[in-house]
Fold this sequence. Notes:
By secondary structure, the chain is of the alpha+beta class. The protein has 1 helix and 5 strands.
Amino acid sequence: MNLIRTAAAIVLVACSTAALAAPAVADGEIRKVDKDAAKLTIRHGELKDLGMPAMTMVFRVQDKAMLGQVEAGDKVRFTAAKVDGVLTVTTLESAK
């Protein structure tokens, strides 16, 4: 019984640690800014934490202020996560 409790505790700690891990920062290029829909189209490198290869795709933004920080052609570094089941840019900065 102690072995089962120990194994359960290890699994619980591992899951908690994974949930707290910060999303990986990805490089990308803004292809389109859609202020009306609060979305960015980004050509990006691999998003390892989301299991996605490099591609161009549309993301929602967590903060609408992000839409005024970039324009098509800008190089960026960003993080993305699934928020309520929707791929969402959670942080965004210029790659300069």
